[in-house]
Amino acid sequence: MAPAPNRFPDRAVAWLAEVAFLFRKEVLALFKDPANRIILFAPAFIQTLLFGYGAILDLQHVPYALLDQSRGQAASELIARLDGTGVFSRQATLNNTNQIAPLIDRQKVLMAITIPADFDRRLASGEDAPVQVVFDGRNSTTAGSAAAYVASVVQAFNASRKGVQGVTVVRRAWFNPNLESRWQILPAMIATLSMLQTMLLAALSVAREREQGTFDQLLVTPMTPLQILVGKALPSIVVGLLQSTIVLLIVLLWFRVPMSGSPFLLYFGLLCFNIASVGIGMTLSAFALNMQQAMLFSFMLIMPLTLLSGMLTPIRNMPLVLQYVTYVNPLRFGVAIVRRVYLEGAGLGEIAPNFLPLLAVAAVTLPLSAWLFRHRLA
Amino acid sequence: MSTAAAPSDAVGDLTVACEGLRKVFNGPDGKPFDAVHDLSFSLRAGTISALVGPDGAGKTTLMRMLTGLLKADGGTLKVLGIDVAAHPQAVQDRISYMPQRFGLYEDLSVQENLDLYADLHGVPQDVRAERFKRMLEMTDMARFTGRAAGNLSGGMKQKLGLACTLVRVPDLLLLDEPSVGVDPLSRRDLWEIIEQLIESDGLSVLVSTAYMDEAERCDEVLVMDHGRLLAQDTPTEITARARGLTYLASPAPGTPARDLQARLIDAPDRVIDAVPRGGAVRFIRQPDTPVERLGDLLQGRPVEERGEELEDAFMLLLRQHNAGGKPDAIHEAASQDALVSPAAPDQTEGENVIHVRDLVRRFGDFTAVANTSFDVRRGEIFGLLGPNGAGKTTTFRMLCGLLPATSGTLEVAGVNLRRARAEARRRIGYVAQKFSLYANISVRENLEFFGGAYGLRGPALKQRVQTIVEQFGLDPAATSGALPHGYRQRLAMAAGLVHEPEILFLDEPTSGIDPLARRAFWRTITSLSQSGVTVIVTTHFMEEAEYCDRIAIQDAGHMLALGTPQEVREQAGGDSVDDMNEAFIAIVEQGRAHDAEEKTAA
Question: For the domain that residue A96 is a member of, what is the CATH number?
Answer without folding.
Answer: 3.40.1710.10
